[in-house]
Amino acid sequence: MMEINSTNTQNKLRFISAIFALVLSIALFIYSLGFISMNKQKTSVAHILPPNTFENLNLKAKAAYVFEPQTKTVLFKKNETLQLPLASITKIMTTLVARDYVDEKQKIKFADKNWRVEDLINYVLMVSSNDGAKELASVAMWNAGYKNKTFIDLMNEKAKLLGLNQTYFLDEAGLDVSDTQSGGYGSAKDVAKMFAYAIKRIPNDLDATAIKDTWFRTDSEDQPAINTNKALNSIPGFFAGKTGYTYLAGGNLVVAFDPGFSSPVVAVVLGSTKEGRFDDIKKLVNATIKQKEFEAKLR
Question: How far is residue 160's CA from residue 164's CA, in Å, rounded to a whole number?
Answer without folding.
Answer: 6
